[in-house]
Amino acid sequence: METILRYVIIAAVGALASILANQSIAVFNDGLRPVLPEYLEKRMDRKALAATSFAIGFGLVIGYGLPTSIAASIILIHCILLTTDIIGTWCPDTKKGMIVSGVIGAVYGVALLFGLQVIIDLFNLLPVNFLGSLGQVSAGITLAFAIFPAVTVALAFGIASGVSPEKGIITAVVTLLVRQIVETYGKIALDAEHTISLNKDGMALLAGMIIMLVFAAMDKEGNDQNSNEMLTQIFADKVARIRKYMPVLALMGGLIAAGTSMSIMAGDPISLGLLAEGDRVNAGLTALARAIGFIPLVATTAITTGVYAPAGMTFVFVIGLLIPNPFIALIAGAACICVEILLLNVIAKGLDKFPGIKRCGDNIRTAMSYVIDI
Q1: What is the Cα–Cα distance from 369 to 374, expressed in whole angstroms?
Q2: 8 Å CB contact between 338 and 58
Q3: Residues whose CB falls within 8 Å of the CB of residue 8, separated by 6 or more in sequence, listed in order
């Protein structure tokens, strides 16, 4: 029964995500989201949109998503949602195209889950199963991922922005110190039989995110108190468009939370690795740190384009990791997406009051790319 449910969830995620991309309601690729208004406003044709989606998504699926997924035997969400972006945009923007995209997305989801299991079974047939050793391919990403908040601060407030690099250095030093402290003192004995073990990379990432947000909140350069109301008025129709599709977006978020709850998928390499080890608490904390950092990026692109992300601000992964029951996770994930969408105007005003946070959000994706490239 559990196996059937796993395939039903992955098929539903693949189908719905493809349909959302096909109808330009939500896409996962942060670089594709700002392009969609060009298509919606008839400044770009469907072929150009499809080519753009493929160009900026396919490499990440092959070079980043699949190796990480195979090594951990859990699907990194990029494998699913970057591909469904491609499927959705390559199918025609018609009723028939929408149905076709949903069918292809569902088949792809099932094939991905089945294929991953086939690969694992083949490794088990080898004289020496080196799948565990293959996991070391992504170990470097897991280790380096914790430093991306420091890179973000350096890009937003450092030499690249014409300012001194002290803030980036401070963030990096604090991140590394926290990692070392947790490495040494991260095991807390509750009693003779129970011990809490904190994950050093997850805690380092969380510390880096906190320092990044502190520096961002302190930066008020370019703040215009009179533009708060103007911001929400200018993009009111964009926010209204997202709210129009809130029920289907909520279902999408609920399905992702349920899939994460069943250890089918995860949102980032660190939490994926921890989930593979059965450490759901530390995986949830890591996912939380990442989600906090992605609020400015997802919110800004959503408000200015009228296109949301199928995983929202990625808090649905936190819910899935911390709630082991997929049905409860589905309800909680759907509720989470609804809250995110209803708070978009509030977030817009908050980002306007703290331009440093928005500046960090603009640099997060670049910083993550730099870290992964290295």
Answers
A1: 9
A2: no
A3: none
